[in-house]
Write a structure and sequence with these properties.
32% of the residues lie in helices and 24% in strands. By secondary structure, it is α+β, with helices and mostly antiparallel strands.
Length: 115
């Protein structure tokens, strides 16, 4: 899937559909409220699919280099995993290095996403 598709259209993985422009997530057809930081983190991880992102890289992108608590990234990853339910394995922890999005992404037509 083309990375720029993530900012311009809907995409899916597993039972989850993400409407990037509308900032909405559906899991098994039910809207999931994940908050702005977690949504930004999900987009960043999906855009970087396959690459391991370090905590400093995530903070620079999601928090725009603001000073944040040391556990902010972990808290947002945990929130995302809870929201994604059985798709939680899409976000892999690479011990000592960071996080990696490993699910296969599929483009979604706006009218078929259900959002």
């Amino acid at each position: 899937m083309d990375v720029c598709m993530l900012h311009h259209g809907d995409f899916a993985f597993g039972a989850t559909v993400v409407a990037a422009r509308r900032r909405e997530v559906l899991h098994r057809g039910i809207r999931v409220d994940i908050g702005d930081r977690a949504f930004d983190l999900l987009l960043l991880l999906a855009e970087s699919r396959g690459s391991v992102l370090s905590k400093p890289e995530i903070i620079a992108s999601v928090w725009h280099d603001r000073v944040v608590e040391s556990n902010a990234v972990e808290a947002q990853v945990s929130a995302l995993r809870r929201a994604l339910g059985d798709d939680r394995a899409a976000i892999r922890t690479v011990t000592g290095r960071g996080y990696q999005f490993i699910a296969e992404l599929f483009p979604q037509a706006a009218n078929s996403s259900g959002i």
